[in-house]
């Protein structure tokens, strides 16, 4: 092979750099990449990413796919990232940059919830650290292959989007599922296949500040799921559905209705309908949810 051919040879290494705003979901993104076969390294200074690639190129490591999380925790090393990206292109190394971001208010709320200190805030002023970080990352954002705003994404939605970007759209399973919430006072849905009575859980209706809310409101959801027996029931229910549904599929069932009932159909049943919808969608089912009596 001559010298010119050497220069144009393409490496079989595939590299993903995960970067973006602190608190925007880098940890979850890296877990997904690890699940789909990437060799993952967190908080790696940019100058060492190239060393890692070169090491894997000459080694017999089983994975030729690498994911490196690189962010402002690297401090003085982080500005080198743009130069490192240029070197990847010069070496014909296949690389993608995933940039995760979120609104300032959302990031602030996440840091307060987790009681974390922002890496760029020496004084503890989280919002100031967020604004400084956003300015620092602007150039990286502009050259990124995928920019994803996680402000309104649940964790499972972020994971699904990362998987879809690298693996393509996931195929939905053939069984169609309807999840229904209802109130016993308005009658039992006769077309349900599985019906669960959740009236054994304390009723938010008797909490004055929750009475006029519905199960889709965060305060109601948190109240319902804060009870140990609600959590225990939810976990038992998931295990039962993991057992039942594959057997329904084997028998050729094409549609399944799962109903949850409480007294009025506005609080507890709605919470459980939403939780099971999310659980089933994570398992690639096509799910339709109906709140029959939520406006009664």
What does this entry look like structurally?
With 296 residues, the chain is of the alpha/beta class. The protein contains 10 helices and 9 strands. The strands form 2 sheets. The protein has a 5-stranded parallel beta sheet with strand order 2-3-1-4-5, sandwiched between helices. The chain has a 4-stranded parallel beta sheet with strand order 7-8-6-9, with helices on one face. The termini are far apart. Helix content is 42%, strand content 18%. It has 2 domains: 10-167, P-loop containing nucleotide triphosphate hydrolases (Rossmann fold), CATH 3.40.50; 176-291, no CATH class.
Overall 3D form: globular
- Roughly what percent helix? 40-55%
Q: Using DSSP, what is the number of strands?
A: 9
What is the number of independent domains? 2
| CATH fold type of the largest domain | Rossmann fold
Query: N-to-C terminal Cα separation, in Å?
Result: 77 Å
The strand line-up of the biggest sheet is: 2-3-1-4-5
Given helix and strand content, the structural type is alpha/beta
Task: List the topology elements.
Blueprint: H1 3-8, E1 14-20, H2 26-35, E2 39-41, H3 46-58, E3 65-69, H4 81-90, E4 94-101, H5 104-114, H6 126-142, E5 146-149, H7 155-167, E6 176-183, E7 194-197, H8 218-225, H9 228-250, E8 255-262, H10 268-281, E9 286-291
Parallel strand pairs: 1-3, 1-4, 2-3, 4-5, 6-8, 6-9, 7-8
Helix pairs in contact: 2-7, 3-4, 5-6
State the gist of this model.
The chain has 296 residues and is of the alpha/beta class. It has helices spanning 3-8, 26-35, 46-58, 81-90, 104-114, 126-142, 155-167, 218-225, 228-250, 268-281; strands at residues 14-20, 39-41, 65-69, 94-101, 146-149, 176-183, 194-197, 255-262, 286-291.
């Amino acid at each position: 092979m001559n010298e010119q051919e050497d220069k144009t040879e393409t490496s079989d290494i595939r590299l993903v750099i995960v970067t973006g705003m602190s608190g925007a979901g880098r940890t979850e993104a890296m877990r997904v990449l690890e699940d789909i076969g990437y060799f993952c390294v967190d908080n790696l200074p940019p100058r060492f990413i190239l060393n890692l690639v070169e090491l894997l190129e000459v080694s017999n490591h089983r994975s030729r796919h690498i994911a490196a999380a690189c962010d402002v925790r690297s401090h003085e090393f982080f500005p080198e990232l743009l130069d490192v990206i240029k070197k990847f292109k010069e070496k014909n190394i296949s690389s993608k940059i995933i940039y995760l971001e979120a609104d300032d208010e959302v990031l602030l709320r996440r840091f307060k919830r987790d009681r974390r200190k922002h890496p760029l805030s020496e004084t503890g002023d989280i919002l100031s650290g967020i604004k400084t970080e956003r300015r620092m990352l602007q150039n990286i954002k502009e050259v990124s292959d995928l920019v994803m705003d996680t402000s309104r994404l649940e964790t499972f939605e972020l994971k699904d989007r990362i998987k879809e970007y690298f693996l393509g759209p996931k195929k939905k399973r053939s069984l169609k599922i309807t999840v229904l919430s209802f109130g016993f006072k308005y009658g039992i849905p006769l077309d349900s296949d599985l019906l669960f009575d959740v009236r054994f859980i304390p009723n938010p209706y008797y909490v004055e500040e929750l009475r006029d809310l519905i199960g889709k409101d965060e305060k109601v959801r948190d109240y319902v799921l804060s009870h140990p027996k609600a959590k225990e029931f939810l976990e038992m229910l998931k295990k039962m559905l993991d057992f039942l549904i594959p057997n329904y599929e084997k028998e050729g069932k094409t549609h399944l209705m799962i109903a949850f009932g409480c007294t009025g159909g506005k609080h507890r049943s709605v919470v459980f309908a939403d939780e099971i919808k999310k659980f089933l969608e994570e398992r690639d089912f096509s799910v339709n949810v109906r709140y029959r009596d939520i406006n009664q």
